[in-house]
Amino acid sequence: MKEQKSTKSASRRKYDQDFKTEALRMIANGRSVLQVAQALGVGENLLYRWRSQQESPTGLAKGKEKTDTPLTIENERLRQQVRQLEQEREILKKALAIFSRQTSG
């Protein structure tokens, strides 16, 4: 005797284009997909899907040639530099805390 599984229709939340654009802008400004997903209460996979759709409106991300303008290249280089400087700053903060404890005790 086979049991039928109860299928519940899970209601999906719908997000307007402004919400999607703002989420993608947060990622473009250097926040990680995980941070944005947690801040907005959405799944990481959803953010990746939105980003893929934004890069390729037809949904065919594979095979799409990416045109890198000089501004795009410079923007990406600066973003990487900011990320590296932020990491270095965090390391220096931790080192300062460690050395402060050693000299005050």
From TrEMBL:
Descriptive protein name: Transposase
Pfam (any one): HTH_Tnp_1
UniProt feature coiled coil, ranges: 75-102
Species this protein is from: Spirosoma flavum
Alphabetically ordered keywords of this record: Coiled coil
